[in-house]
Amino acid sequence: YLFLYPSGLEITGYGNTIAEYGVLQVTWQRLFKDDPIENLATYSKRFGEQVNLPFRGKVALTQASLNSTSITLRNVSWQDESCYICSFNVYPDGSSRKQTCLSVGPEGEHVEVVFGCSATGKPAPTIEWDISPGASHLDQTETTTASNSDHTFTSSHNVTLQVPADWSGHVDCLLNRGQTGEKQKRIPFSLSAGRPKAKDEGGLYRFGIALVISAVIFIACMAVAAAMLRSRR
């Protein structure tokens, strides 16, 4: 997963290949509808990291290797709305590539936040949620339960909320509600400081968040050397 924040208006794209041998060069490119492909940056063992002159200061190779690469675009604007290509030059099979297109739009008034809660016990703990005002439910998964070698069970549950961009509140994870061993764990959350904050109050839960905003995109590129592409955005 990629966690993206509105501060700085940056986007990061990741590319990787499952080819272990024969990768000679990795290239990041940009494609406009009516224009030829532009090379943004390349990496090879011979020449190292190379960002083309027109894009220096705009494009940065934040990870560079022959099987895993990433770039960051700084100060994203309307002019950056185009398609981006991750290309692996593999010997002797040629080039394997995948493109994903970036659509730039205004920052929304709401963001989506995913909270996760996990607890271990015997019998399997139940999990419910109590949400502070200002947030609305978008989706929640079914509780999943896994058995452990010590004959206990681990229950996990996620909930997706839509909250205002300046929301400060909390989400309570309620364990075994109305039963013996009932517990409550609070997950504080604030967007007012620009980035979300989470606090672990005892280790009974794992907390993860994902912000969905416009003007950012996750570019996933997976190339298979033996003529098969396998990718998922």
TrEMBL record:
<dbReference type="GO" id="GO:0030424">
    <property type="term" value="C:axon"/>
</dbReference>
<dbReference type="GO" id="GO:0016020">
    <property type="term" value="C:membrane"/>
</dbReference>
<dbReference type="InterPro" id="IPR013162">
    <property type="entry name" value="CD80_C2-set"/>
</dbReference>
<dbReference type="Pfam" id="PF08205">
    <property type="entry name" value="C2-set_2"/>
</dbReference>
<dbReference type="GO" id="GO:0150079">
    <property type="term" value="P:negative regulation of neuroinflammatory response"/>
</dbReference>
<dbReference type="GO" id="GO:0009986">
    <property type="term" value="C:cell surface"/>
</dbReference>
<feature type="transmembrane region" description="Helical">
    <location>
        <begin position="204"/>
        <end position="229"/>
    </location>
</feature>
<dbReference type="GO" id="GO:0034113">
    <property type="term" value="P:heterotypic cell-cell adhesion"/>
</dbReference>
<keyword id="KW-0393">Immunoglobulin domain</keyword>
<dbReference type="Pfam" id="PF07686">
    <property type="entry name" value="V-set"/>
</dbReference>
<protein>
    <recommendedName>
        <fullName>Ig-like domain-containing protein</fullName>
    </recommendedName>
</protein>
<dbReference type="InterPro" id="IPR036179">
    <property type="entry name" value="Ig-like_dom_sf"/>
</dbReference>
<feature type="domain" description="Ig-like">
    <location>
        <begin position="92"/>
        <end position="190"/>
    </location>
</feature>
<dbReference type="InterPro" id="IPR007110">
    <property type="entry name" value="Ig-like_dom"/>
</dbReference>
<keyword id="KW-0325">Glycoprotein</keyword>
<dbReference type="InterPro" id="IPR047164">
    <property type="entry name" value="OX2G-like"/>
</dbReference>
<keyword id="KW-1133">Transmembrane helix</keyword>
<keyword id="KW-0732">Signal</keyword>
<keyword id="KW-0472">Membrane</keyword>
<dbReference type="InterPro" id="IPR013783">
    <property type="entry name" value="Ig-like_fold"/>
</dbReference>
<dbReference type="InterPro" id="IPR013106">
    <property type="entry name" value="Ig_V-set"/>
</dbReference>
<dbReference type="GO" id="GO:0098632">
    <property type="term" value="F:cell-cell adhesion mediator activity"/>
</dbReference>
<keyword id="KW-0812">Transmembrane</keyword>
<dbReference type="GO" id="GO:0043025">
    <property type="term" value="C:neuronal cell body"/>
</dbReference>
<keyword id="KW-1015">Disulfide bond</keyword>
